[in-house]
Each structure stands twice: as C-alpha cells, then as structure tokens.
C-alpha cells in the first residue's frame, strides 16, 4: 500500500497471479498416485496466456485478463512471468536439492518483488538481485508460518534432501512430515535458509529499492523469531506497525 497507485495496481495483479499459480500445486488427490499431471495442465494454461494474452481475455478469467493487460502495456516481461510458472513446476516435480529449492524461491516470490522494483523504475542489476533475495526470504518466512496448512493442502515445497534428513523417502506424502520431531526440524531448516537469503542490509539509498523491499521487514521478523512462528496464520499489531513505520521512512 506504500507503492505509488499505478505501481500498486500492477503489484496486486502480480500477487494474484502468483496465488493462482500456487493453486496449481495443490493436487486433488495424492501426488504419489496421480503424479503432477493435473498441476502441469493448469500451469500450461497460464503459459499459453502469457504467450498469447488474447487467450486470457477470451477466457474471461479476472486474473488472466489483468495479466494480459500488463503484457500488452509492456509493464512486465513475459520471461519474468514465466519464471514464476517455472518455480511452481519445480515444486510439482519434487525439488531435487537445496540449490534448486533456493532458485525456486528466487524465481518465484523473489521475481515478484524484482518485477515490482522494475515497475518502480529500478534498473540496476545488483539492486534487483538484492530485491529478489528479499522477496525470496519473505516467501520462506511465509512458508515457515503456514507450513502445517501448506502440508495439509497436499503441497510439498521442500527439497528431497530435507525429507531424507528427517528420515523420509523422496516420494513421502506431505502428511508424513507431521511425525515426531519432523516439523520442528524442517522449520529450523527453513529459518536457516531464509536468514541466508535475507539481505544483510534492508536500507538502501534508492527509494525504489526501499519500497520494493518492504516485505523484507516481515521476513526478518518471521525468521528471527524462528520455529515459534510455525503455524501462526494471522499477524499481530507488532508486524503491522513495523511495516508501517518502515514504509513511512522509505517513501
């Protein structure tokens, strides 16, 4: 809400688009039985919309129409939107290792914030990369907060290496992570990875990057509280005030 109105409208479209893609990773039945096909079909539909924006308009899908508008106005690049699709596809195929997992975070929520910075006029590659790390850290913090619900939905946004580290096979069901001590171990790992992604200094001389990195304020609070936030869905007044104060300072 601290973004300029025109940029804010575009950011809402990107957030909605990212949410629609996340729904593709929620499989109707056990992924071990059906494989990722259902999700891949939904992701391919979005790829088609990106390739031919008229498809989204013809489908009368609110988010697809809005995405088509951004593409036609050249507010965002098709390659950036496809990065978000690729990130979700990585999750559907089970993330093979930690390097692929980090890239998934940077290419997903990290890319959302990178596009926001681009909409604000930021063009410096080093700054954009830092903004992407802030967005990725925010996603890790959000995953830490919502981990039980995410797993219950049937999603498995964790690398196979982590599953094996807690004594599970690579094709384990998400519900298997509710075994004794496993959620705690995974939450601890998420915290470490999120802190590694979080830029060491969130302040910047660039007004555009300061605004684009506001989600990093929440990321820092979530990750520094660690496993205590796991399962916390709603945010308290402290989080809201922290973002409000940072937003007013960075305008």
UniProtKB/TrEMBL annotation:
SUPFAM superfamilies: Terpenoid synthases. It holds the Pfam family SQS_PSY. This is Phytoene synthase. It comes from Acetobacter fallax. The lineage of its organism: Bacteria, Pseudomonadati, Pseudomonadota, Alphaproteobacteria, Acetobacterales.
């Amino acid at each position: 809400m601290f973004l300029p109105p025109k940029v804010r409208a575009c950011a809402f479209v990107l957030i909605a688009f990212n949410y629609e893609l996340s729904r593709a990773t929620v499989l109707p039945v056990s992924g071990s039985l059906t494989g990722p096909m259902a999700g891949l079909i939904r992701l391919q539909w979005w790829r088609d919309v990106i390739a031919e924006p008229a498809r989204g308009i013809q489908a009368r899908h609110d988010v697809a129409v809005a995405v088509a508008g951004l593409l036609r106005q050249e507010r965002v690049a098709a390659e950036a939107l496809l990065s978000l699709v690729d990130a979700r596809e990585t999750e559907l195929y089970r993330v093979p290792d930690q390097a692929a997992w980090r890239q998934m975070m940077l290419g997903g929520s990290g890319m959302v914030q990178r596009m926001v910075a681009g909409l604000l006029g930021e063009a410096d590659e080093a700054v954009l990369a830092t903004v992407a790390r802030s967005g990725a850290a925010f996603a890790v913090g959000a995953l830490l907060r919502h981990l039980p619900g995410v797993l219950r939905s049937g999603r498995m946004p964790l690398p196979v290496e982590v599953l094996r580290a807690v004594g599970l096979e690579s094709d384990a069901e998400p519900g298997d992570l509710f075994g004794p001590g496993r959620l705690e171990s995974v939450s601890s790992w998420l915290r470490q990875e999120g802190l590694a992604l979080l830029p060491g200094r969130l302040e910047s001389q660039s007004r555009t990057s300061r605004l684009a990195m506001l989600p990093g304020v929440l990321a820092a609070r979530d990750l520094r509280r660690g496993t205590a936030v796991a399962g916390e869905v709603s945010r308290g007044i402290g989080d809201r005030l922290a973002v409000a104060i940072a937003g007013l300072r960075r305008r």
